[in-house]
Every structure is written in structure tokens, then in C-alpha cells.
Amino acid sequence: MSVTETTSLRKKRFLKSFLASVFGTGASRIAGGVRDVVLSNFLGAGSVSDAFFIAFTVPTVFRRFVADEGLTGALIPALAQAEKEDPKAAKRVANTVLAALLIANLVLCVIGILCADWLVQAFAWSFTENPEQYALTVQLTRWLFPFVAMVSLVSFFESLLNHRKHFFVPKMAPGLVSAGIAASAVLLGTSFQQPVYALVVGVLGGGVAHVLVNLPVVWKKWGTFGLCFDFGDPRFRAIARELLKVIAIGVLAQINILVLRQLATSVGDGAVTQYWNANRLVDLSQGIIAVAVGSALLPNISQSVSDRNWDVFQRDLRGAVQLAGFFLVPVAMGILVFATPLASMMFRHGAYTWEAALETGRTLQIMAPFLLAVAAINIVKKVYFALEDRNTLFVVGMVGVVLTAILGVVLMPGLGVAGLGAALSLSTTAQLIMYLWVLGRRLPGKLHLSALGRPLLPLVAAAIPSTLILWVCAGFGEWSGGPVLFMNWVIFLVGGGSAVGVYLGGCWLLGVKGPSRGSS
């Protein structure tokens, strides 16, 4: 097969993997958006909603130790290498990792349930000043902790399926959790003396569903699997060493979250919820694309590094950056001028006040740089996973924690919740710069950073007219009325649709390559 044919085949495979991940992640994030709308109507922004979001944050933080990109980043390259040597070895490695995960999750859940008091104090010390809120948060944390084991299993299945070039189901599965939470709020909200406990049913029920939905496709793509306790296997030990590094990195990331939550809870009732919702809108905006690009990129990058094919490596990375930028550059620029209307249309209804929506919009606006930086980091970190370089991730993560804490303390008194958004934007941008600088020195002559950034310039130019359209539209709506006012919907939809059309037209005039042509 010629080089041209090989490149074309890689592009098609990457685009296919990307689209599968986009549709799966998109379905999940849309379900998450619906969940957030329902929760804002159900709980508003106050002490009870803050209690739920802190209780949900605690197990979510610990999942990073046994799930998510740490697990997939360590397991996928190991599976690729093991299967190259012996297909049966890959299954043994997977079965051993599964056994280790089950043991680790059992220990983690027991510790989390028993130590819920201390954990809540670590994340929200100010809650101790309100005994009723503190007791509610502790109880919710205990009930929600088993969720971490469910997420860990889904990440394990995702590793197996991504290795087999299947991306849709594991990316779609988390949407079942969001759907479960939204459904429980609507259907069971009046069934409990404290309505927030209905959400616990939704989390745990959705968690079980999002594990089970993966099983049919795992059996189809991977075959049956079991438990293997060969913890002395050199391949498993190599994965374990990588996971220990990831855990160390994860500890830093979670300290970052802990610091932000402590700062948010000190602002006052509703601050955690406002910050959570702004962060969710960023996640909804960038997560669909950045996660999909990163998931599709890792197997290709791992193969390129294994083969020492640096030309293909460069093309893959450049295509991934351009593809993510095509979608996210206009989104970030639009958020700068349209954050308040977006927050209003999402959350300004039910128990969610106009003041809370304004603060959410202000925080979202200041997090626009964070949106781009975290999306870029999500791509760049895949390179470090493929290079099996966890030391850089650890060091840069440590610097990020310190920066976020310092900036949060400095900016929060003047900006409130928005100060936390500013701290995240500044510290994440600094981390991205450090990652790129180290990568340039690590791969001299093999990675051309200027070539990665050059395709983004015409995207910025194409997004300027669409941003101006959104800026004009933002001045016309009665956004304090939220989605209840029909005219707000007209302005929101017409303005958004016009901005998209103008952006695509600008890309065409500037000769920007479409995603299918630009990705490799």
C-alpha cells in the first residue's frame, strides 16, 4: 500500500472514530444539559443545591484515580503492545486489570462512605457553620459514593472498545446517568421528605444502566472476559506503575478542584451551584468536540509513537488541532459576548433567580479562555500518554494547582464566583504553554508547534463577523425573563443560526479546509 493510500486510510479511520465519538459524547452532553436545566428548575441556587453538588463532586473526584483518561491512557497503549506480541496476552492483561479495579473500587467505596464527614469538610468547610446543610451533604455523599465504581467499569470497557476502534457506546453511556437524574427529579421529586434524595435514586439507577449498556458491544468486540489475579505479570506491573503516576497526577488535579470548591463555598449560598452551572456550559461547549478528538486521536498517536513514524504523528496531531479549532474557536468567541443570554435561556426558570443567572453568565464569560485551553490540553495530553511521559503531567499539574489556588484567593474578593473562573482561565492557559514548551523540547525536529497553530488563524478571522452578530443580538433580549418570553427564543435562535451561517461562509471565503479534509 502506498504512503498516499495509507494516509488516506488513516484519515478515514480517524474521521469515522471522531464522528462515532462525537455522536456518543454529544448525546451524553445533551442529556447532561437537559439534566442541568431540570436541576436548576428543581433546586434553584441555594444551600440544598450546593449540598447536592458538593456531595456529587466528592465521588467524582475519586473516579479520576480508577477511571477516565488515566485508566484509558495507561491501558490502551498497553493493550496495543501486548496484542502485537501475543493476542492472548492482551486478554490476560485486561482480565488482570479488571480484577485489580474491582478490588480498588471496593476499598475506595468503603473508605469514602466511612470518611464522608472528613471529605465534606475537606471540600466545603464552611458548611460546618450550617449543621443542617452539613448533615445533608454528608448523607448524600455516603449514598452517592458507589457511583465511582460504576464509572470505573465504564472507563475499563471504554479502553477495550477504543482499542477495537469502537467509540460510540462508551461515550453515550454517561448520558444515561444524566437522564436518570432528570427523570428522578421530575417523577420522584415529591416522593421524599427531602426532595433532593430523589436525585440519589437517579444517580445510582443511571449508573447501573450506563454499565449494563456497554456489555453487549464489549462481548461482541472483545469476547467474554473474566477475572485474573496474576498481579505479578510484567505487563500488568507496567500498567500499574503508569496508573500510580496517573493517580499522583490525579491527586494534584483533585486538590485543584478541592481548592476551588472551598473558595466557592466561602462566597455564600448558591455560589457552588452558579460555578457548577458555568462550568457545565463550558463542558457542554467543548467536551463534545475535545473529548471526541482526543479519544479518536489516542489509538493513532500510540501507533505512530510505537512505529516511530514522526511524519504521521505530526499530521495526526495537526489534523486533531484543526478539527477541534474549527468548532471551538467560534464557540469561545461567541461566549465572550453571549454568555448572559445563554445562561438565562438555560437556567432562568423555576427556582433559579435572575441574580443567579447573571452571576452564572459572568462566570461563563470569563471562562472562555479556559474553554480553549482545556480543549487543547485534552489533545496534547494524549501525546504524553502515548510517549508514556507521566512526569511532565505531574510537574505541570502541580504548577497548575498552585497557580489556581493563588489566583483564586487573589481574584475572588473582587470578582466573587467569577474570580474562580478567571483563576481557571489564567492557570489553564499557563499549563498549556508549559505542556507545549516541554513537548517542543522533547521532540526537537519531530514536532513543529508553529504548524499546529497556523490553521487556527483563519478560523479566528472567520469567527469575528459571527461574534459581532451575537454581540448585537445580546442587546435586544429581555433576558431577565429567561426562556418564558417568546421574543427571547426568536432572538436566541435567529441570532445563533445567523452566526453559524456567517461563520461557515467566512470559512469558505478564506479557503478553510473542512473537518473531513483537514483531519488525518
**SSE sequence, one letter per element:** HHHHHHHHHHHHHHHHHHHHHH
The number of distinct β-strands equals: 0
Shape: globular
Span between termini: 17 Å
Which spans of ≥5 residues are poorly predicted at pLDDT below 50? Answer: 1-5, 516-520
What proportion strand?
Answer: under 5%
Largest sheet: none
Rg for CA atoms: 23 Å
Question: How many helices does DSSP assign?
Answer: 22
Q: What percentage of residues falls in helices of 4 or more residues?
A: over 70%
Q: Round the mean pLDDT to the nearest integer and report it.
A: 81
Structural class: mainly alpha
Structure, explained:
This protein has a domain at 47-259. With 520 residues, it is mainly alpha-helical. Helix content is 83%, strand content 0%. It has 22 helices and no strands.
Properties at a glance:
single chain; 520 residues; mainly alpha; 22 helices; globular; disordered N terminus; disordered C terminus
Q: Outline of this structure?
A:
The protein is an all-alpha fold.
